[in-house]
Design goal:
Rossmann fold, 2 domains, alpha/beta, 7 strands, single chain, Helicase, Ruva Protein, domain 3, 287 residues, 7-stranded mixed beta sheet
Length: 287
């Protein structure tokens, strides 16, 4: 996805929040903020790709502060929030076991995102209000049709905490007799899920786990490891969670690969790009 005008201020907001999490050194914060502004001056223009700029900014913050995981404490908070709502969500799924309902639950988990929504967001309230909303864009029937013919699915994970809800959807996918492989980040960036977080919530109990070979936000094709690229092209279906994966996948020549993006349109540029209202729940077929 190309940048929209609002993305510039969002990058600066994320920079401030990540710096406050990463270090207490005020002089260092000023230095890195100047570096972030330089990145934006060089890279932020019409036609630039949003997740590529975001990745460069957050890699710069990690490198210059010497903090490999500024969002470390928020990872635990996200897990706690997800586990808090899990019994209520599971009860809701017992009343409606349709694939669409499981997709809605997985999308509700997508609001566990302090990077996109900010550190002061009422994440708890957003989770339940999101799960109760219908889909603003619903390609779930197309996905179900593809699942009935598929043998394997590559599931691109997004945030920590969110993967607790992903686990429920992955169990549902197994009813279609597909083998699910979940792709996680090789190293921390923002609050994206890595291998350890997936193991902590038992994602390995329901799926094979791999990494993308990189810490890029979403998918930056040239950054992906060779082994992951092979996984990407050999799978029958790709299910991609979250904004970063949407931003990156829309810049990849997917050929005829069936790709489904599951997300909550948490920011106006994403909502505008997809064509839904802000906060809309989306199951989008890219191909």
């Amino acid at each position: 996805m190309k940048v929209h005008y609002e993305c510039a201020s969002c990058f600066l907001r994320q920079t401030r929040e990540a710096l406050d999490l990463a270090t207490d050194d005020e002089e260092l914060k000023m230095k890195i903020t100047e570096m972030t502004n330089q990145i934006l001056c060089r890279k932020f223009r019409e036609g630039a790709v949003s997740n590529q700029i975001g990745t460069e900014i957050h890699r710069t913050i990690k490198r210059e502060t010497g903090n490999p995981d500024p969002y470390y404490d928020l990872r635990g908070k996200s897990d706690d929030i997800a586990m808090q709502f899990l019994p209520r969500v599971e009860k809701m799924l017992k009343n409606d076991k349709s694939l669409k309902n499981y997709l809605k639950v997985a999308i509700a988990g997508n609001v566990l995102d302090f990077g996109a929504l900010g550190l002061k967001s009422d994440i708890e309230g957003l989770v339940m209000s999101t799960v109760e909303k219908d889909l603003a864009l619903d390609h779930s029937k197309q996905l179900e049709k593809k699942l009935k013919k598929a043998r394997n699915v590559l599931y691109l994970a997004d945030n920590v905490g969110e993967i607790v809800f992903d686990k429920l959807l992955i169990k549902k996918l197994q009813e279609y007799e597909v083998k699910v492989t979940v792709a996680l980040k090789e190293e921390p960036i923002l609050n994206d899920a890595c291998m350890q977080e997936a193991l902590d919530v038992g994602l390995d109990e329901v799926a094979r786990l791999i990494t993308t070979g990189t810490d890029a936000i979403g998918v930056i094709y040239d950054d992906l490891s060779d082994s992951f690229r092979k996984e990407f092209w050999k799978t029958d279906i790709i299910i991609a969670k979250g904004l970063g994966n949407y931003e990156g996948l829309t810049e990849v020549d997917l050929k005829a690969k069936p790709v489904y993006c599951l997300l909550n349109a948490k920011c106006q540029p994403i909502a505008r790009d997809i064509g839904v209202e802000l906060g809309g729940n989306v199951v989008l077929e890219l191909n």
